[in-house]
Structure formats: C-alpha cells, structure tokens
Amino acid sequence: MTLLGGALVVGLWPIGAGAHDHRPPRAHILTDTDRARMERGSYSWSEKQGRFCSSVISDAFLVSYPRAVDYTIGDRVRLRFRKHHKPDAVKIRQYREVKKNGQPKGDGRRKFFTLGKVTVNGNVRWEARFEIKRPGHHYFDVTASWKDVDNCGGQAADWVTHLKAVKS
Asked: Is residue 34 assigned to a domain?
C-alpha cells in the first residue's frame, strides 16, 4: 500500500432522519486498455446513528504513487466514483514528476474534465472524463466531496493515481 493513515471518531450530535451509503466510495481509473483501483488517502465521512451523527476522519500521507495505468494518447481517461450520489465538487491536480521520496514535484496544475453519469450493472456511478495529450508519466491527486443527505455535515475523500501515456 502506498498511503499511511489513521482514523478518529470525531463526535456525535442529534439530527433528523434519512438514509444513504455511509462509507467513502472506492474509485477506479479506466482507460480503453487498462483499469486500476485508485488508492484512497485522507477522508472525512459522517453518518447517522440513531438520533446522532458520527464523523470519522482518516488522515493519510503519500508514500509513493501506485503502478502506472497504461494509456494511449487520444483515448479517454475516466475516474469513476463508486457512489450513486453526484459529487458536489471534484478537483484533479496533475503532476509530471515525483521526487525520490515519492512526493509530487512542483505545484502541479489543475486538470479540466467533464463530469458524467454512467450506469454499470444497474448501478449509477459518476465519472470525471478527460484526455492526456503528452506522452510520459502523469500523476494525479483527486479530491471529491458530497453533501450528506442526513444533514450530518460534508463528506470528502482524496485518491491518488498514475498514468503512463504512449503514442498510438
């Protein structure tokens, strides 16, 4: 595993009724030729428990990026979140290099994408879609957040992933 972290239950407070999925979603990176699970880092997640809300915060730091997913320039990249609720916000930061210690080199740059809904085996999923135009390694830090339908506060998670783009 390339991320290290710990979890802490933050607090309980009374709330109203509701129901939905209560775990940070898995996320995958998909290309036309390859696919891999994105590695989840830090997250903050709230859920209703009876008349109370509880929040779990897990703080993680990057040790190294996962193996590169193969990508042919011109194909579509999809970052798929396995959660049926639409994210309120998604941010993708792209880096071209990493340091010897596995950390991204430089400030990176914001990656622009389109967000779309897809149905997979009868389940709704949301995807951030974009293309890569330059060959080489591309490292991504991804953050997504959702509004909590139980009024327990926000929900957010971070992932990292790595592409190796080649010309067709």
From this structure: yes
> 73: domain range?
24-38+65-166
Tokens of 133: 């135009």
Q: Is residue 140 part of a domain?
A: yes
User: Which token pair is 9?
Assistant: 């239950």
Q: What pLDDT, in 10s, does the model give residues 29-69?
A: 999 989 999 999 999 988 888 888 888 899 988 888 999 99
